[in-house]
Amino acid sequence: MALTILLIDTDAERARALEEKLSQSGFARVVRAVDTDLAAAVEAARPDLVIIDMALPDRDALEDIRTVSAASPVVMFAGTDDPAFAQEAIAAGVCSYNLSGVALQDVRPILASAIALFQRYRHVEIELAAAKALLNERRLIERAKALLMKNRKMSEPEAYRWLQKKAMNESRKLAEVVADFVAGEENAQRETKA
Amino acid sequence: MSEVVSLKQPRSGPRLRIGFLRLTDSAPAIVAQEFGYFAEEGVDADLFEEPSWANIADKLAYGFLDAAVIVPPLAFAIELGLRGVSQKLVIPCNVSMGGNTITLSRALARQVCDSAHDNGLSTAQALAACLKTRDQPLPLGVVHAYSTHNLLLRYWLATAGLEAGRDVRLSVVPPARAVEALQSGAIAGFCAGAPWGEIAVRAGAGLNVAASDDIWRAAPEKAFAVRASWAEENPEGVKGAVRALVRAAQFCDAPENASYTGSLLSRQKYLGVDSHAILSSLPGGAIAPDNQSWFWRGAATFPWRSHALWFLRQMTRWDLIGAVDRDALAARVYRPDLYRAAVAPLGISVPLADGKNEGAHSMPWRLEAAPSPIAMEPDSFCDGAVFEVSPAPASF
User: ipTM, 2 decimals?
Assistant: First the structure.
C-alpha cells in the first residue's frame, strides 16, 4: 500500500528530486505544497506523513493542525528510542510528522531518502559558499596588494610578503587581516576626500 | 559602514549554542554577543536564528542547541515531553517583559474601538459585543500552542466571557505569515510578540487594539532556558551567561540606546526587518509607549517562581497540561538560586523572596531586595485578579 506524503519545501528543485525518488519506489504518493494554507493542504491530501524543510516557519502551524486520524501530528520519532536517526535529519535540515500512526519500519526508508537528499543539497550549498568566500578572499588580496603598491611603492611580491608577515605577527588568518586592511585603507581614503 | 573595530576577544570557556527567534526581545542575547559580554564573562557563545519554536524545541531536545531565548510555557512543554522528546531545562534568568500585541484586521479593529468608545466598554467587552452578530467563531492566530501569547489572549478573551472553540477559533500562525493571513482573511487577528504587530500596522493589514500591558501590566515574556545537563557540567558558564544577559538587559533598557539596538536587531542575520518597526517596541524608541518590551527595570531579569506558577496554572486552566505537581515543576525549572549566585559579582540588588503576589500592585511599588530595595512597575491584571503564592523561603 502506498503511503501519501505531503512534502513542504520551497526549494522546487529539491522537492522535485525527492518526489521523483519516492514515487519511483512505488511505496509513496507525493503531494507538494508550498505557501498555502497548511490546514487546507492537510485536509485535502490526508497524508500519512508530512516531510517539511526545517528552514520554514510553518512547523509551528503544522503541529497545531488536528487531523481525523491523529489528535495532532506526531513529530519525528517522539516516543521512540532512535535519537541518532532524528539527529541526522535535524542536521540535514528536514523534519517529518506522522499523521496516521504508520509503523516506523514503513516510514524509515522514506525518511532516509529525504535525509540523504537534503544532505546532498546542503553539501552543494556549503561548497558554493566556500567557493564564494575563496573568490572574495582572492579579490581582497588583489585589492590590498594594489593599495600597497600604489600608496607605499612596494613591488607585488613585497606587498604579498608584507600582508603574510602582518598576519603572522598578529596570529590571525590572512583573509581577516586583508579584509581589515582594505576596509581601513578605504575608510581613510573616504575621510581624506571628505 | 564597515566594522573596523572588533570587540571580539579570543575564544575561551565552554561553548554555548543559543537559539533565538526574529523578535524584539531577542535583543539582550544579540547585544551580549555583539558587545562581547559573553566572551568577557567566560562563555564562548554562538547565536542561531531559528524560524520556528518547533526548531528551538527539537534542537534543544536533540542537543543541537544548549540554550534558547524561549516562551516559558514551551520550556515546560519540552521538560514534560509534550511535543516530542523531553529534555530537562533550567531557567536561571528572565529575558523580557511585555511586548505582545493583539492585532485585528483594520475593519474589525475600527468596529471594536468605536463600540468601546460609544458604549464605555473595555476593548475585550467591545470585541464580545461585535461577535454577537457573527454565527461563526472568529479566527484568531497565536504563535504557538505553548506560548505566552496563547495564554495571554485566552485570559483577555475570558474577561469578556469569550471562549476559544465557541466564540473564537484559535490556530497557530507564524508571525512571519501573519500579515499575509490577515490580508487574505484567513485570520481576523492575531497575538504575537514585537515587532510583528507593528509590521502588520505598517503594511496596512491591521491595527493593534491591545498589548501585554492591557492584559497584565508586568507580564513576563521571554526567558533564558538552558539544558539542565549543560548547566550541571558548566556551573561557571551558566553564571557567566546570566551576567552577560543582565548587562545586556541594562543596555537595552536605557532609552538613549534604543536607536542603536533597533538598527543592530534589524540586520539581516538577526531580525531582517525594518528598524523603525523594531524601534517602536524598544524602551525609549516608541512615540506612544503603549507596547514596549522591557528588559531590566523592575527586577525584569529575575526568574520569579510566581511567574512560573502563573504560567503553569494557566496551562492547566486551558488543558494544555495534565495533572502535574506544579510547585515541584516550577521549582525544578525556575532557578532564582542560580540567578543570585550569578549576579553577586555585579553588585546589583536581588529580590529577597523567590515569589511575589502577582497582580497585587496597581501603582509603582518598592520590592524588598538586598542590598537596597528595587523600584517596581505596577503588575495588575485587566480583571483585577490577584494571583497569590504561598510564601516559600528564598533559595540561595
Answer: 0.89
